[in-house]
Amino acid sequence: MRVQSKWSAVDNMTEMGVGSLDSSTCSRVAIFVVLGLVLNLAVVCNGGQTSAFVRKIDFSADMPLDSDVFRVPLGYNAPQQVHITQGDHTGSAVIVSWITADEPGYSKVVYWSANSENQTAEGIITTYTFYNYTSGYIHHCIIGNLTFNTRYYYVVGIGETETQFWFTTPPEVGPDVPYTFGLIGDLGQTFDSNKTLTHYESNLLKGQTILYLGDLSYADDYPNHNNVRWDTWGRFVERSAAYQPWIWTAGNHEIDFAPEIGEPIPFKPYTHRYYVPYNASGSTAPFWYSIKRASAYVIVLGSYSAYGTYTPQYKWLQEELPKVNRSETPWLIVIMHCPWYNSYQSHYMEGEAMRVMFEAWFVEYKVDVVFSGHVHAYERSERISNVAYDIVNANCTPVKDQSAPVYITVGDGGNLEGLSTVMTEPQPDYSVFREASFGHGIFDIKNRTHAHFSWHRNEDGYAVEADSHWLFNRYYYPADDSKSTSA
Ligand SMILES: *[C@@H]1O[C@H](CO)[C@@H](O)[C@H](O)[C@H]1NC(C)=O
Ligand SMILES: *[C@@H]1O[C@H](CO)[C@@H](O)[C@H](O)[C@H]1NC(C)=O
Ligand SMILES: *[C@@H]1O[C@H](CO)[C@@H](O)[C@H](O)[C@H]1NC(C)=O
Ligand SMILES: *[C@@H]1O[C@H](CO)[C@@H](O)[C@H](O)[C@H]1NC(C)=O
Ligand SMILES: *[C@@H]1O[C@H](CO)[C@@H](O)[C@H](O)[C@H]1NC(C)=O
Ligand SMILES: *[C@@H]1O[C@H](CO)[C@@H](O)[C@H](O)[C@H]1NC(C)=O
Ligand SMILES: *[C@@H]1O[C@H](CO)[C@@H](O)[C@H](O)[C@H]1NC(C)=O
Ligand SMILES: [Fe+2]
Fold first, then answer.
1. Whole-number pLDDT of residue 389
2. Whose CA is nearest to atom 13 of ligand 3?
3. 285 CA to middle of ligand 5, Å?
4. How many other CB atoms are there within 10 angstroms of residue 280's CB atom?
5. Overall CATH class of domain 174-214+287-486
6. Which of 138, 161, 264, 303 is 20–30 Å from 389 (CA)?
7. Cβ < 6 Å from ligand 6: which residues?
């Protein structure tokens, strides 16, 4: 049996931040202290900060097909691309997915914890074709009725190719349960993507679940959307996604709409490969759904599914928001691919139509934070809303609003399209911090009142927070948290 262990953290950290004093309108001081760690202290001023961090802007190529991270496991029909996600509404089930290349093979998962006998669950197998590509046998198996806060081991494959992994179930849902989410978007499969994932895995804050903000493999950037790049991506992220759930959001690179080559059905590769527990939240499609996890209620929205009045997504969200019981899950998080507030030129105003439909609800129901990807950069906003405008009045500028969410864009996973470096000038008042660097985020829920967000750029040491912010919970502690930025 092949026993895999999570790739060991790279702890002999030698990378170091490179800073320069910048010359934008606000005054600030950047001091870099090398102390084994690299600490980046920035004094932030009122008009928002555009970071002057200096980095190489070169495009990064996709890792070649023979890269170590894409290696196919040894053995006939060996399970590959193993990944897990939450399997029900509360976190007591897990969907285990994997692919066998040669034949359907064994679709059972054997799993156990320290205190339980071996149990077996049977999965389903699906396949699809895309132009001249034929997928392997895609297995999805729900294992449920798991005990909370428990390490489980699981095995996929049979005989020589049995492969063992593990995961830890979340604590039971409740208001005082700390939990740490990682945030990665627009990852792709370049050398930078690999750095982002390594950086996330090595982060001392230890993310327990990834909220994935959309745009996975970027296979559609290849001729005929070469779906082989969906497989390589699945093998690349296995080292994390087989051990902790990745909560999936569909981005534009998941649409794979290509009628010119006979592929008119949107989302075909994505929906076959990445199952999500949308039924459990009364959704009728995998692009919008919700989960509870520890003290968080996470709503996933589909930027590329209809959201106008009367559409299924609209009706679902309208019924969903009143169901959120903040005394049970204080932290209301929304994730979607396309940001509503974005002061980069890339994708500027693309999120406007959905913002117009849903923003008033986010303010009414006091969403704590909205995470997005899509723009290949980082940005964090004030708590702002732009719901006053009604076409005929002149109130069309976003205003600070303590009932509104903080909007954070983390579309900087590192894909082959490169960074979005061009910003709209001047920086809007609502934009607190923006920087075009690859990296990842951590949302660290401490208790019912406090959560700490940090953004980690790839160039820095693993413990460095290039930007960070304390969020006060909008239900239990709706105090003004706009000045709670820490260095
Ligand atoms: C449980 O399953 C694992 C993996 O197949 C196997 O190695 C182990 O011997 C089994 N334990 C028992 C008690 O059957
Ligand atoms: C699919 O078609 C492309 C170009 O038309 C070709 O390069 C590739 O080898 C084909 N792949 C398969 C699996 O037939
Ligand atoms: C959990 O247990 C119940 C009762 O035994 C069963 O009906 C249900 O299918 C189980 N759920 C899962 C996901 O295994
Ligand atoms: C990807 O990152 C891992 C962990 O740092 C490293 O072992 C591996 O060699 C890297 N692969 C490539 C192709 O960069
Ligand atoms: C989700 O609901 C559909 C339609 O009701 C059903 O066919 C499907 O089996 C359900 N899936 C799960 C995982 O419960
Ligand atoms: C909300 O959750 C709390 C804490 O779990 C519970 O006591 C209360 O009954 C719930 N309210 C509703 C309306 O379900
Ligand atoms: C919640 O966490 C914050 C930050 O760690 C801490 O300052 C505060 O005292 C905690 N509140 C309670 C009630 O423990
Ligand atoms: Fe995108």
1. 95
2. 144
3. 10
4. 17
5. alpha beta
6. 303
7. 325, 327-328
Active-site residues: which are they? 347
Q: What is the pTM of this model?
A: 0.91
Domain ranges of the chain: 174-214+287-486
Ligand 2 pocket residues where CB is under 6 Å? 132-133, 224
The C-alpha atoms of residue 84 and residue 287 are separated, in whole angstroms, by: 17
Ligand 4, atom 5, residue with closest C-alpha: 198
Residue 1: C-alpha distances to residues 45, 109, 116, 236 (Å): 57, 14, 21, 21
Q: What is the largest CA-CA distance in the chain?
A: 70
Query: Mean pLDDT of residues grouped by 10 in the chain (487 residues)?
Result: 37 29 32 31 57 77 97 97 98 98 97 95 98 98 98 96 97 98 98 98 97 98 98 98 98 98 98 98 98 98 98 98 98 98 98 98 98 98 97 96 98 95 96 97 98 97 94 98 76
CA distance 414 to 408: 17
Q: Is the CB of 280 under 6 A from ligand 3?
A: no
Alpha-carbon span 246 to 252, nearest angstrom = 18
